[in-house]
Design goal:
Rossmann fold, seven-stranded mixed beta sheet, 20% strand
Amino acid sequence: MSNIVNNLVEEYIRTTLKDKEGLLKKLEEYANDYNVPIVHKEVSELLKVILKVQKPKRILEVGCAIGYSSILFASTLGEDVEIITVERNENMIEKAKENIKLAGFEKNITILEGDAEELLKTVDGKFDMIFLDAAKGQYQLFYDMVIDKLKIDGLLISDNILYKGMVAHDEFVIRRKKTIVKRMRNYLDYICNCDYLDTSLIPIGDGVALSYKIDERGDE
């Protein structure tokens, strides 16, 4: 149970949406078998629609895992997109490289290997879209490192922002997760109230925040 929406509603949505095919389907099965965190099915379909509307040419992803989201982005947008993704887990990196090669997107997707806190400092240029899907207790840290790299009219997408419902209500909070929950709440308070973003919180999957950049960040 996700604590995000009613179980029956969630099941209906997931069974109604069209199933993936080919490599993406295999990656979903692998993630399920080996408990690898990837975006939920309903979130992946939302991302596809957003990508087709926004048509980003340059995407920065924080949290690659087995490469599922990056491959989804490239599959949706085609060969014109450039994706830079960051991952520190060596096993995930090797699997992601294998999957990206199988998908035929080696020229489109670059994996930066190591700690995001260090690697994000080295990323140059501006991006049309940024996707946060890494350590949930570090979103504010990552945000501060990447938001100035997002173009005006660009989109920041933060996944898992309700964190199994724990962020929404203390009733769901597991004691050992209190620090992560507190940090995520602070992060959401910030992106929902700063004057250079328009943000919507969407209760699908594990929660998704969409933030549209309307101006550059000023002095705070």
